[in-house]
Amino acid sequence: MLNGNLVGIRPVESADLDFLADLDAHPAVRGNVVGWDWPVSRDAQADWHKAAQGNRGTRRFTVTDLRSGEPIGLTGLWEIDWHNRSALTAVKLMPGRAPKGAGSDSIMLTMAWSFYEVGLRRLHSSILAFNAASYGAYVRRCGWRVEGRERAAVFRNGDWHDLLRVAILRPEFDELPDAEAYVRRVCAVQTGLAVIDP
Questions:
Q1: Do residues 153 and 163 make contact, with C-beta atoms less than 8 angstroms apart?
Q2: Phi, psi angle pair for 176, to nearest 5°
Q3: Is residue 195 part of a domain?
Q4: Average pLDDT over residues 57-78
Q5: Rounded CA gap, 134 and 120, in Å?
Q6: Dist. CA 56–CA 133, nearest whole Å
Q7: Average pLDDT over the chain, rounded to whole?
Q8: Bridge partner residues of 128 (DSSP)
Q9: Cβ(152)–Cβ(160) below 8 Å
Q10: Nearest Cα residue to 114 out of 137, 81, 92
Q11: How many domains, in total, are found in the chain?
Q12: What's the confidence (pLDDT) of residue 43?
């Protein structure tokens, strides 16, 4: 498990599936995420989990509250491109269950892990232009940059809305004030001092 200041991130377990079905079905979550799909039954959630196990281009993780250990969300890496060392990432948190700051903590932890353990150099995502919480977490607090805008790209609440394309590179992460602290949380072994001379 990876531990941040407020959250932990661990692989999805079968015990999480009921919570994840509730998260996926929550109207506020469904309305603020970019992708759209038909509602998922609890039975289909198990199939979703099983299918993800064999997908080398996807790694999903349960976000937990560090104090209680209870699941509060989902994050991960999708569309992992090993040649270009990039991946899509996102975080979904259950309204009313996640402590304030859990989104930014999840993002920082995922970035540190992706850049310093997985070896990626670029992370990207999409944010609906009206989703102020995601914009604040990714762009204002975690250093992501808006790289583009797709006009009237996503249908929500009977209308079309713009989609913001956002991304961050490892050197931009490194410039963040808390980057080093998150890297230390993710990388338990410090490798800066060579003690063996070949």
A1: yes
A2: -70, 145
A3: no
A4: 95
A5: 22
A6: 30
A7: 91
A8: 163
A9: yes
A10: 81
A11: 1
A12: 72
Within-domain flag for 198: no
* Confidence tier at 101 by pLDDT (50, 70, 90): very high
Q: What are the angstrom distances between the C-alpha of 114 and each of 84, 120, 131?
A: 13, 6, 24
Residues 6+ apart with CB under 8 A from 55: none
**Helix or strand (DSSP H, E) at 181:** helix 179-186
- Tokens at 3, concatenated: 């531990």
The reply to whether 164 falls in a domain is yes
Sign of CA dihedral 69, 55, 26, 42: negative
pTM assigned to the model? 0.90
- Structural tokens at position 108: 């920082």
11-25, 50-64, 153-167, 173-187: least confident range: 50-64
Q: How far is CA 162 from the centre of its chain?
A: 21
Per-residue pLDDT for 191 more than 80?
A: no
Task: Report the CATH number at residue 73.
Answer: 3.40.630.30
Question: Quick one: 99 exposed, middle or buried, by C-beta within 10 A (0-12, 13-18, 19+)?
Answer: middle
Decide if 162 is inside a domain. Answer: yes
Q: Which domain holds residue 77?
A: 2-186
pLDDT of residue 190: 72
Q: pLDDT tens across 109-157, in order?
A: 999 999 999 999 999 999 999 999 999 999 999 999 999 999 999 999 9
